């Protein structure tokens, strides 16, 4: 085997890699339907001051991805986080999303997300200063009202 030379990829080479991966997926899955990414970002304000917010998006596979959820310490346990989660999940359902995913670290909000119906599907152990990172998901098409 000859010596392997690894170098930084150019824009054209990255596009070539992406096309190769897309062709591989097309061969495996048949027609691939991609959706445009849509940002789903919301805030709660009191007197024009942001006290809570959520950053999320519908990704290209029509999955809701929750990136960040924050509530100012003075307003935690007041229902704001739950209201934000419901808002983005409902909006995502209206867009046709059937699944939501997020990650959280051990010290963050795993219990809260479980109360919202999320389940752990993977754990990356001891990844951030000894903290476990939980990968969680929730079906959005199983809603019982």
How does this model look, in words?
By secondary structure, the protein is α+β, with helices and mostly antiparallel strands. It has one domain (38-139): Gcn5-related N-acetyltransferase (GNAT) (Aminopeptidase), CATH 3.40.630. The protein contains 3 helices and 6 strands, in the order H-E-E-E-H-E-H-E-E. Strand 1 (38-46) and strand 2 form a beta hairpin. The relative contact order is 0.12.
Keyword list:
single chain; 145 residues; alpha+beta; Aminopeptidase; 6-stranded mixed sheet
Helix proportion range: 25-40%
Rg measurement, Å: 19 Å
The number of distinct structural domains comes to 1
Distance between the termini: 62 Å
CATH superfamily: Gcn5-related N-acetyltransferase (GNAT)
Could you say what the CATH topology is called? Aminopeptidase
Number of helices, where a helix is a run of at least 4 consecutive DSSP H or I residues = 3
What are the low-pLDDT stretches, counting only 5+ consecutive residues below 50? none
Order of helices and strands: HEEEHEHEE
Which SSEs are present, and which pair or pack?
Elements: H1 11-29, E1 38-46, E2 49-58, E3 64-71, H2 80-94, E4 99-105, H3 110-115, E5 119-128, E6 131-139
Parallel strand pairs: 3-4
Antiparallel strand pairs: 1-2, 2-3, 4-6, 5-6
Summarize the structure.
The protein is built from three helices and six strands; from the N terminus they run H-E-E-E-H-E-H-E-E. It is an alpha+beta fold and 145 residues long. The chain has a single domain (38-139), classed as Aminopeptidase (3-Layer(aba) Sandwich).
